[in-house]
Amino acid sequence: MLTPPPSPRYPSKNVPDHVDIALPPATPPSSPDSLKQRIGRRTKWTIMLVPMVLILITASTRYLTHPAAFDMFSEPTVLDWETFSSGSALDWTPHKRHPLPAAAADPSDAVASTLPSQSASFASSALQGASVSTSASASPTTAPPAQQTVPTVPASPPTLPTPFPQPFDSELSQNFSSISCFNFFSNMTNTLPFRECRAFSLLLQTSAAFIEAQADLNLLNSIVWGTCDPDTSDTQCSANMAWFSTNLVSSCQEDLKDGNSMAVNTQIALNAFDLMRSAGCLVDPTTNTYCYIDAAHNSNPSDTYFYSLPLGVSIPNNTIASCSACTKSLMTLYYSALSNSSQAQGLTSLQDTYLSGAKIAVADCGPAYATLATRSGAARPVQAPLWSFVGSTVLVILLSTFLYLP
């Protein structure tokens, strides 16, 4: 009997009876010292990162107590003027210096024949003795303005200082880029059509006598009354200032191009003549006092800052508004002017500064104090800066990372 051969098989593998698996060593319990070190590292990183993120969040806001992110919770109204100038009228580039040119023989001749609706005798008259100082020194006053009594609006014409404060009452700067521009300023500042209109917009930034009068509220009250009640009619003064603004552009082309501050700022003030006259003549009905006198009396300078918005001067970011009724009236006046398409054309500087001033008023005093507006005029609210949301997100991530990692 045949024995069958064994069946073919796959070669067997040498499999050990058991396999030793190396296990990781057990983690020893944390000692108190190592635990303290980890807590210390977390605390150190937290102390370092939290301030950095807070700085990141507040970098695009006005100040910590009133972050711009809070603006999104108000219901701003969108300004509806047609176009908003995106460029700033103030260009502080240096300009070349010219020697002092010889003044015209008769400073009034250049403007006498072309002023709008002026009689020959009135238009050609210039003040005698152009070198007479126009500084109206304030009467001796020992108490600072904040401690003086605010005078009411005069019921009858007060005694005005003689001579009345005038713009550019110090010597004209020699830093003109063109002789034609210097001659224009020399002629303009010595003609009655300019001087008798008592431009509040120009007194506010170029009159040494007006600045000195801030120390005496009674004197300042008379001066403000004089700017509100000039001998020349409001209509005629508006036409005069428009004429001077137009001729400044033609006479000071080179200076405007070079960014001559005197030429640029004067053109802004001439264009804002009507609006600034209305602003200077605002009265607080509860006290029957000029709002500007109230602002000069207030130890908080924020009220006076709002008067510079039409002149292209922004309010400092750290300003805390006093939330007076006059501030509300002033911002309402500005908004109304910008809402008027014909009036807004000459107020490009206010278009540049209004929004920042309105945001400060709203942040400190509430949405009733000013109307927020977008520069593009699109129907969208003023939103919080993107940096605020990014910074908040980063803060949460960093805190979770460093506080929960071993």
From TrEMBL:
InterPro entries found in the cross-reference section: DUF7729 (IPR056146)
Keyword annotations: Membrane, Transmembrane, Transmembrane helix
Region of interest called Disordered, as start-end residue ranges on this chain: 1-36, 135-167
Transmembrane regions listed in the UniProt entry: 45-64, 386-405
Comp. bias regions, Low complexity: 135-153
Annotated DUF7729 domain residues: 163-371
Biased composition (Pro residues): 154-166
Pfam families, A to Z: DUF7729
Name used for this protein in its record: DUF7729 domain-containing protein
Native source species: Mycena pura
UniProt lineage: Eukaryota, Fungi, Dikarya, Basidiomycota, Agaricomycotina
